[in-house]
Amino acid sequence: MKKTGIALVLLSIILTTCAGVNAQKPELKTPVISTDVTKLTVDKILQLQAATVAQSNGEITPPQVVAEFLQLQPAQITELGQLLQTRQATLVPLVQTAQTLTQQLGILLSSGGSPAQVGALVIQIHGVQAQIVQAQQTFLTQFTAILTAEQLQKLQAVHVAAQLQPILLAFQPIFLF
User: Fold this and answer.
1) Nearest 5°: CA angle at 123, between 125 and 42?
2) 102-132: per-residue pLDDT in tens?
3) DSSP for residue 147
4) What is the phi/psi pair of residue 24, to 5°?
């Protein structure tokens, strides 16, 4: 809970201080979010799917938080749901393929497979990872296309906050915030 509070405080600071800076920029850019596809698993994608489905116990889902924070309109919320479903349908088979190929590579390496076979599998894995990154980038491009300038600015602030989040723990012990 403490980390969430810190992140929210940092986010509010960023939102208030970045408003003047962004006012000087004539155009808004789509946030570039790096996706580490090596950390994706089918389990994580299924958890993501479960997290996006409305909770019957009243818990707020991540898409609901996003919609509230960005102040999405009902049509935008519907579009976000469709984009999430499309991304899900695209990623699950790709991640399954990547996991299968990675397991095959491990077996091949432990059994002393030929360098040509190893190389072919590595190239296949890389290709699947590129498809996963492309699917994520397509999702981000389509999502940011439905946002207003103000909503896009808020999304960019969240991206900045996410980049700063790992260093927050260094600032806290010396009371810099």
Assistant:
1) 5
2) 999 999 999 988 999 999 999 999 999 999 9
3) S
4) -85, -15
